[in-house]
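dumping this here before i forget
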Amino acid sequence: MAKQTSARNEAKSAPGNVSIKVISVNRQAYHDYFVERTVEAGISLVGTEIKSIREGKVNLRGAYAIVRNGEIWLENAHIAVYEHGNRYNHDPMRSRKLLLHRREIQQLEARVATKGLTLIPLKLYLKRGRAKIELGLCRGKKLYDKREAIAEQEVKREIERVIRKG
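structure:
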């Protein structure tokens, strides 16, 4: 009999593959913005925040990132208070510093300033046990763009239904 391995074990053992556990996805961002480019950034966390993240108690809806004094800060992201924590629990809506190389920060700052783009968190995940966030350099959609996207999704669903039935 052949030995069966799970996909999770294969991802860890194969060279170059890194296991990633997605914690939260900002679906609203994909509806409201065109994503032009994505960047992976680390997050500077305090004590109980990582425990809440591992439990999946994160909400990225309405969150954004800004450049302040040569650093990128994540604003308006909600990481719930850790229920087994003590009096040193964190503030759920505090600003969190994002960890990027200086050159990356300068490039993002220039793109945001000149082209009117926005930095929006798209995904929060654990990679090698560390919390990472995928930032998207986004351009806002107009109302007609949103309607167009919804119409395309409905057409795709209808085609899939027809294919499944017959």
